[in-house]
Hints:
The complex is a heterodimer.
Chain A: H1 11-35, H2 39-61, H3 69-83, H4 89-107, H5 113-124, H6 129-156, H7 158-162, H8 166-196
Helix pairs in contact in A: 1-2, 1-3, 2-5, 2-8, 3-4, 4-5, 4-6, 5-8
Chain B: H1 18-34, H2 41-44, H3 46-58, H4 62-82, H5 88-117, H6 120-129, H7 134-163, H8 172-200, H9 219-241
Helix pairs in contact in B: 1-5, 3-4, 3-5, 4-5, 6-7, 7-8
Amino acid sequence: MSTNNSKKLTGKDFINIGVFTAIYLAVTMVVSCTLGMIPLGYMALSIVVPIIGGIPMMLFYAKVKKFGMLLIFEIIFGLVMIFTGMGFYLLIWGVVTGLIAELIMKGGKYSSANLCVLSYAVLSVSVSGNYVNQLTASSEWVAEKATTFGEAYMSATQGYLSIWWVFPLLILLCFIGGLIGGFLGKAVLKKHFKRSGLV
Amino acid sequence: MMRYCVYGKNNQSIKLDPRTKLLLCLCISVTLIAGSSAGVLRYLNYIPALVPFLFMISLKKYKNALIYLAVYVVCEFGTSALVPYLPDAVNILFTGVIAFSTRLIPGAMMGWFLFSTTTVSEFVTAMDRMHVTKKITVPISVMFRFLPTIREEYTAVQKAMRLREIGSFRNPVKMLEYRMVPFLMSVVSIGNDLAASALTRGLDSPCKRTNMCRIGFTWRDVVVVVLLIIFYSCYIPIAVFRR
């Protein structure tokens, strides 16, 4: 293919985006279905999902050489979240973090491995977009449900979110999880995929 | 990626335009997630929850429909009946999640319905008609083509690793590495094959894509849209004037 040098996205890039969105979606779904059942685990998702997603995402980053791939990735991920009923905040967060991540990658001319990790950490912050749903709905939701479900559960999940420093902490946790996942992914990439010639 | 419609599922009992199905999906998930469930609205919320059930019946998937109904009913009514009798520890662990899932399951089932009754070709065509760019439609269709593959590959890797007795929860890092790496290897190479095959069939060509699908709005779509309008003309005034 002689189009490899051009700046425009080609069909191969679109297919790569689709493949890695599917993988990331599967990882997110599996982790959140197992861990998200417990209130504290639900909070811990913000750090666990970026760590486990780090390995496939670093492989994806090895293929990102053009502007727009991360943004499309986040848009599609957000759209899927809407259609599976997770609310529309993730799309907004995804577009913002996707743009910042793109700019970081562009700054490194899509070749610096450390900037890949930083960019992935920024991208991971979009995971916390799922909590906005509860943050905004919390007061009304608590008032409605507290009578039926008892104060105990409410103080377990809604309570966390109503403390002012918890949401920034979640964002920070996502970022740290992204950094850990990114370095993990980078190590795995070096150990396995480079050696086998996959990248 | 492009499954042609020659063998399309034309024998299904309710054939809606993919765009109508998308609209339904969006309405159900937005209503249940962002909407309120106070007072009368709680009963109105049963209507969007019933829609996936009806569609599953129309597909003659009676077993799935019954399971869905049972899960929904247990989540909606069972929890509020049980909660007062359970200890707080159990309540903390499960009840809230179950209650929240009554808002998620209908949307998820509707999404499942959308993608199980729409071929990729139909979906792409409908998106083309809505002037959505190829940048969005191609990755989405690849993604939905890929989800079953991912499951298949992962089960294969899991079986192989179990045979080698690697990867119990005692050593999570090792488990992650020994499952993720072979899994990614196979999935990425499948993706490369897919890309090669799609490019051979002219994915990159600048021409407009042609297809053999019959897509268009029929009286069924009109009925669905009219029902939606009626539903929202009840729902929105109640939601607004209750404040």
